[in-house]
Design a protein that fits this description.
By secondary structure, the chain is α+β, with helices and mostly antiparallel strands. It has one domain (2-106): Beta-grasp domain (Ubiquitin-like (UB roll), Roll). The chain is built from three helices and five strands. The chain has helices spanning 21-28, 61-67, 97-106; strands at 2-6, 11-15, 46-51, 77-79, 89-95. A five-stranded mixed beta sheet has the order 2-1-5-3-4. Strand 1 and strand 2 (11-15) form a beta hairpin. The longest helix is centred in the C-terminal third of the chain and has 10 residues, at 97-106. The N and C termini lie far apart (29 Å).
């Protein structure tokens, strides 16, 4: 199991290897957007991975292309729907303001 911490939300959840950051957010009610339903067609699930990036799947070309559409992209940027847990450990995530706004619009 991996522990995913959503820092500004004070939420933490354990998920098995194979799950995505977006799935972890949904499991614990963290406000991460997913307008496309998690199929890598938008950037509303944009997050910053502040710790544990080595525990996640590699950034693929499709994800990188979609990240080009996001605001304030940083070296730690990932799409929650594509960042899949591949190893056990602790992952610390910050949900971007745009992702929070998308979540609010969806709910």
């Amino acid at each position: 199991m991996a522990t995913v911490r959503f820092l500004k939300d004070g939420r933490e959840v354990e998920v098995p290897v194979g799950k995505t950051i977006l799935e972890a957010a949904n499991k614990c009610g963290a406000p991460e957007g997913s307008a496309c339903g998690g199929v890598c067609a938008c950037s509303t699930c944009h997050v910053y991975v502040l710790k544990g990036s080595e525990l996640l799947s590699e950034l693929e070309d499709d994800e990188n292309d979609v990240l080009d559409k996001a605001f304030d992209v940083r070296p730690s940027s990932r799409l929650g729907c594509q960042a899949r847990v591949v190893k056990e450990g602790v992952i610390e995530v910050e949900i971007t303001p745009e992702s929070r706004k998308a979540w609010e619009a969806e709910h």
